[in-house]
Write a structure and sequence with these properties.
The protein is of the alpha+beta class and about 240 residues long. The protein has a domain of about 130 residues. It contains six helices and twelve strands. It has a five-stranded mixed sheet with strand order 1-12-11-3-2. It has a five-stranded antiparallel sheet with strand order 9-8-7-4-10, with no helix packed on it. It has a two-stranded antiparallel ribbon with strand order 5-6. Helix 3 packs antiparallel against helix 6. The N and C termini lie close together (about 10 Å). About 30% of the residues are buried.
C-alpha cells in the first residue's frame, strides 16, 4: 500500500530543505519528463556500506529485531513532531509486530541506490532511495514522480494485457493518480496513472517513486553504520 500523500510534507521537513519560491507556488516545471533522471548509488564502491546494507536486508527479511534495533542510532530522528530515540522508533514502526510496515518500507528504500545528502538541519548522510536527494528544485514533489526502471511499458489501461502506448525509463513524469487497481479484479497489481509527453497511461506501481516517500538516512561512526533517520507517514 502506497504511503499517504496528504500531509506528508510536515513529516519530511525535518530532512528536506525549503523549496524555492516558485516550487512552493506549485509552478510546474517545463516538461520535466523530457529530462533523464538516472539512478544513483554513490556508496557502491565502499565495501563497508555494501556489507552493511546486505546484512541489514538479510536481518529485515528474517525479522531479526535485535540486529535492526542494534543499528538504529540512539537519537534516531522519527519526524518533525515526534520525539527522537529508540522508544519512539519502536512505537512508530510497531517493530514487534510480524506485519510491521518497517519490514516492507525499509527494503523498498534500500533496494534502490543511495545518495549523499546534507543541508543546514542535517549533517551529511547517506540516504536511500536516491530520489529525494537528487530531486530537481523546479519539479513539484507533489505532482510528479521518478520512473526508477530502465524500461517500463506505458499502457492504455491498468492491465498487463492491453495496448502499450510507449516505453519509458529513468525520467520524471507528471502523476495523475498514484493508486489505481488492476482492471482484472483478481489481479493484485497496482498501477499509477501518469502523463508523459502528449500521452496519458498507466505504469506498474513498483516502477515509479515519489520524492515524498520514506527516506532512510545513515551515517558511519566508530561503531559502524547507523540509521539516523527514517521518517514515516501514517494514514
Amino acid at each position: 500500500m502506497r504511503i499517504l500523500r496528504r500531509g506528508i510534507c510536515m513529516l519530511l521537513l525535518a530532512v528536506i530543505p525549503a523549496l524555492p519560491a516558485q516550487a512552493q507556488q506549485k509552478k510546474p516545471p517545463a516538461k520535466p519528463q523530457d529530462g533523464v533522471f538516472a539512478p544513483r548509488d554513490e556508496a557502491a564502491s565502499d565495501p563497508s556500506w555494501t556489507r552493511f546494507r546486505d546484512r541489514l536486508l538479510q536481518a529485515v527479511q528474517e525479522r531479526d529485531r535485535k540486529f535492526v534495533l542494534g543499528i538504529v542510532a540512539r537519537n534516531v530522528r522519527n519526524g518533525l513532531e515526534q520525539p527522537a530515540g529508540h522508544e519512539e522508533f519502536i512505537r512508530q514502526w510497531d517493530i514487534n509486530a510480524e506485519d510491521s510496515p518497517l519490514w516492507r518500507e525499509l527494503p523498498r528504500a534500500l533496494h534502490l541506490g543511495a545518495a549523499w545528502y546534507s543541508h543546514e538541519k542535517m549533517p551529511r548522510s547517506l540516504c536511500a532511495p536516491y530520489v529525494l536527494p537528487h530531486w530537481p528544485k523546479d519539479a513539484d514533489p507533489h505532482g510528479y514522480g521518478a520512473i526508477t526502471a530502465r524500461e517500463t511499458a506505458l499502457r492504455a489501461a491498468p492491465s498487463g494485457s492491453v495496448e502499450i502506448l510507449a516505453s519509458l525509463g529513468y525520467s520524471i513524469v507528471r502523476v495523475i493518480d498514484w493508486e489505481v487497481a488492476d482492471s482484472d479484479a483478481d489481479n493484485r497489481q497496482k498501477w499509477v496513472k501518469i502523463s508523459a509527453g502528449e500521452r496519458e497511461g498507466f505504469i506498474p506501481e513498483e516502477h515509479i517513486r515519489s520524492p515524498l516517500e520514506h527516506l532512510a538516512c545513515f551515517r558511519k561512526g566508530e561503531a559502524g553504520w547507523r540509521l539516523t533517520s527514517f521518517l514515516a507517514a501514517g494514514e
